């Protein structure tokens, strides 16, 4: 079904079902991978990634097309899938945050070029020493958090709660519980929910300070005290963009994903990652009894990641203007 | 003499003399202002600014047009003027560095918007507390440095060495000691030195990583350990751009300064100021026994100012491409 024209013969349920069946099958494949992975870390990671991707897409579809579905069932499964993908995401988030921060520290303290060690004097109270200590501190803290997240994942995947989710998804692989509107012709009912998802996205983007973000080096993201408050609308836009992408996937099964929209989504992912890495650096700096050199390097790192937040906003507005120039104008 | 055409009747000395006479007169006016300023701080600042501006322009002209002048005299006076303008610049540099750093701390810790205090949690170990302490530390250190610079200025202006400079400049207000080439027709000898100054500038700019600087958020300037080494060619370009501007002033007396070239020069000034402010933050962080929160805020501040360094490079390449597009292409 490529760009279906939703003829009168096709019900909304018939349009959505193949997408939900396929994502449910992905989920079950992830489950199988998880069972087979044993102590194979790479296999376990792929299993978790597959489970998460499928859970996000099913949950997003249940959210967007809720009016066409059995709403009690959809709401319940969506809540459980959100719990599951949130739990599974934590371990990977700790790993990638650590990699991001250690890479940034290395870039900050090595200068990235063939610079003689003797020129390092300018970089603060031994930025190299401070960076090494800060890196060790972050590694300790994030490795601990990752270990906890790993245990939480394993516990979740072994829980009765998870088995109930897996059973529900297994049923979804063959049957989608529809509401009354799900039996209506797709042409009449299926566009409105997708358009609502797009409208929410467009409204959220319209409320972002994109003109400001288009001015490089505006230093907005470096207003540290305003950090969370100024980040929230961008994080919200990231979620709405994801819902919009999944809705598009569901209605154009087999179609090519829009590469520019994908780039915009990547920019918002980077925005989120940098904001969380900055927060992790700030949190590490609150560790009692750290040396001033360590605190200093964490301050540099915090500002550096907020710089990356700003860079991600710049990248988003650039991608977005290419994506929607015809839609918005 | 507006855009002189350097006819055969005009000697090189006759072209340069009015400019040097005028700058020497500026210098003497600055000296008078200094004598009259007494305890009037604003007056003393204006006097120092006038003296410095005149000293830089005379020194630059002696440097660029050295082949046309009495070289022994030019070299000697230029050395003395460099000493004087360097000494006088320090106090103002301390003041503006402090203002820059305190403004940045305020921007970093206040968030620039109506953000409730309760949202400040993200900003590290009390970024507000750390910023206040860092500000107090910087104020102490830079005020001390400024007081020392002020004493050094006063001492310099009262010294026999300064009086010798003032005497030499007073002579220059009425007579320019020329070399043999100074009596040659301007059309034959005056363009080569000015073109050499321009060529040096163009070569220096060509060696800058402008393509890289044109990519916003490249994070080059945040490679802290490479700080001084990567800044040097930009600082050198700043000096060469100044020499070029002064040479242009000398040959087009009364002409309008090129606003875009001025903008490029301002960007390189901002580059230098931000680099020095970053170094001051780094130096403050090396103060023994500071609290981790203070060190943290200084680290944020250091990275913030390196961010400004990068922003200045971006601004320079943008201005430069407008300035020289016809020249370079």
From TrEMBL, chains A, B:
The record lists the organism as Streptomyces vietnamensis
What domain of life does the native source organism fall in? Bacteria
Give every CHAD domain span. Answer: 9-325
PROSITE patterns found in the cross-reference section = CHAD
List the Pfam families: CHAD
Name the InterPro entries on file.
Answer: CHAD_dom, CHAD_dom_sf
What is the protein named? Answer: Metal-binding protein
């Amino acid at each position: 079904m490529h760009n279906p024209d939703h003829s009168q013969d096709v019900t909304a349920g018939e349009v959505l079902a193949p997408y939900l069946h396929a994502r449910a099958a992905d989920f079950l494949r992830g489950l199988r991978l998880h069972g087979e992975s044993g102590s194979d870390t790479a296999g376990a990671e792929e299993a978790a990634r597959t489970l998460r991707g499928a859970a996000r897409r099913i949950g997003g579809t249940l959210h967007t097309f809720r009016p066409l579905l059995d709403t009690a069932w959809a709401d319940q499964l969506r809540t459980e899938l959100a719990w599951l993908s949130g739990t599974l995401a934590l371990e990977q988030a700790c790993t990638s945050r650590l990699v991001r921060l250690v890479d940034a520290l290395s870039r900050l303290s090595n200068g990235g070029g063939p610079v003689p060690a003797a020129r390092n004097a300018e970089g603060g109270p031994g930025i190299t020493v401070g960076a090494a200590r800060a890196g060790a501190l972050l590694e300790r803290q994030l490795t601990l958090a990752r270990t906890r997240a790993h245990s939480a994942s394993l516990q979740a995947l072994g829980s009765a709660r998870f088995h109930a989710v897996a059973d529900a998804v297994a049923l979804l692989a063959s049957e989608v519980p529809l509401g009354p509107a799900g039996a209506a012709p797709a042409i009449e009912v299926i566009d409105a929910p997708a358009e609502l998802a797009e409208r929410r996205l467009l409204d959220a983007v319209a409320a972002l300070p994109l003109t400001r973000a288009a001015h490089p080096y505006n230093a907005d993201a470096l207003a540290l005290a305003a950090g969370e408050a100024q980040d929230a609308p961008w994080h919200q836009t990231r979620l709405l963009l994801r819902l919009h992408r999944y809705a598009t996937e569901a209605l154009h099964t087999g179609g090519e994903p829009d590469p520019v929209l994908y780039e915009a989504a990547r920019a918002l992912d980077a925005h989120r990652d940098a904001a969380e890495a900055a927060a992790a650096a700030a949190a590490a700096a609150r560790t009692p009894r750290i040396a001033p050199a360590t605190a200093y390097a964490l301050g540099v790192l915090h500002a550096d990641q907020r710089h990356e937040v700003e860079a991600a906003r710049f990248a988003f507005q650039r991608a977005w203007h290419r994506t929607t120039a015809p839609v918005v104008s």
